[in-house]
Automatic annotation (TrEMBL):
Pfam families: CobD_Cbib. It is found in: Cell membrane. Pathway: Cofactor biosynthesis; adenosylcobalamin biosynthesis. One of its GO terms (molecular function) is ABC-type vitamin B12 transporter activity. The chain crosses the membrane at residues 58-75, 80-100, 153-172, 285-306. It is a multi-pass membrane protein. It comes from Pseudomonas mangrovi. Converts cobyric acid to cobinamide by the addition of aminopropanol on the F carboxylic group. This is Cobalamin biosynthesis protein CobD. The gene is cobD. Keywords: Cell membrane, Cobalamin biosynthesis, Membrane, Transmembrane, Transmembrane helix. Belongs to the CobD/CbiB family. GO terms for biological process: cobalamin biosynthetic process.
């Protein structure tokens, strides 16, 4: 029961307070990550690539993540204050309110026909080039981002907190942040960021599949499961594929298709079935994430009651 109450408290803190506007710990961690990358990846070579080997990226990852994870474990052991510290760690790792704050303005701009604003807003959510997207492309990008980031920013954090408490959620959130900073296949980061990308894949493997199942249970279940089975294996990411395929199927919309990343056009496999995504599907995706969070809390509550 205490685990349910801790998760509920952290979710409520995120709902009412959102991310700290000042002095967010991840901002300081980002500065550390940038320093480590400059130090271990070295200056650019003539072709624009970094000079590091994969082992340098592993070393940098360990220096960034392991000391802070150990510190979280030590602080969680403090009587009385330890559980409060753990709740604080989970609160800082969650991003459901942030997801709403980023996604709803995209849907609102699309409804008002303000494509320029919609492109700008969705550009804050995704890494693809949004400057030439039409309204359908913006809606597709926004819906995909909500489904995928719901898994990363909400459910994976909950999963690792449930499994390993404060050190688990700290390990996950820092690893996920390093993947977002180092995990690109650019000339500079391809070798150095390899470890960060692979570790994040491992940490998200089980949570992503639980999220895909949660999305399926809350939407068009049979279609979601079929899309997950048939479409996810073709997706480049082993974790985003199941999440977005099941989410698109649950919503009954078509996602995927062409997108431009770092100046390079990619034709991505289709996801889901049904009409193309529209503004309302961004909002429906947010509702799906919220419903899945409620489902996880209910499961935790039942687990606590059974084992009380």
């Amino acid at each position: 029961m205490s685990l349910f109450l801790s998760c509920l408290a952290a979710i409520l803190l995120d709902a009412f307070l959102g991310e700290p506007r000042r002095a967010h710990p991840l901002v300081a961690f980002g500065r550390l990550a940038n320093w480590l990358e400059r130090h271990f990846n070295g200056p650019l070579s003539a072709d624009g690539s970094g000079r590091a080997w994969r082992s340098h990226g592993v070393t940098a990852w360990c220096l960034a993540v392991l000391p802070l994870t150990t510190l979280a474990w030590l602080l969680e052991q403090i009587p009385y204050l330890g559980p409060l510290f753990a709740i604080g760690c989970l609160y800082l790792a969650l991003g459901m309110r942030s997801l709403y704050e980023h996604a709803l303005p995209v849907a609102q701009a699309l409804r008002l026909g303000d494509l320029t604003e919609a492109r700008k807003r969705v550009g804050w959510m995704v890494s693809r080039d949004t400057s030439v997207l039409d309204a359908e492309g913006v809606a597709r990008a926004g819906t995909e981002s909500v489904l995928e980031n719901g898994s990363d920013a909400v459910f994976a954090a909950l999963f690792w907190f449930i499994l390993a408490g404060a050190p688990g959620v700290v390990l996950y959130r820092l690893s996920n942040t390093l993947d977002a900073m180092w995990g690109y296949r650019t000339p500079r980061l391809a070798r150095f960021g390899w470890a960060a990308a692979r570790i994040d894949d491992v940490l998200n493997y089980l949570p992503a599949r639980l999220v895909a199942l949660s999305y399926a249970l809350l939407g068009r279940t049979a279609l979601a499961l079929r899309c997950w089975q048939r479409q996810a294996p073709a997706w480049d990411s082993p974790n985003a594929g199941p999440v977005m395929a099941a989410g698109a199927g649950a919503l009954g919309v078509s996602l995927g298709g062409a997108a431009v990343y770092h100046g390079r056009s990619e034709v991505r496999p289709p996801l889901g079935e049904g009409p193309p995504a529209r503004a309302r599907d961004i909002e429906r995706a947010l509702s799906l994430v919220q419903g899945a969070a409620g489902l996880w809390l209910l499961a935790l509550l039942l687990w606590g009651v059974v084992h009380a």
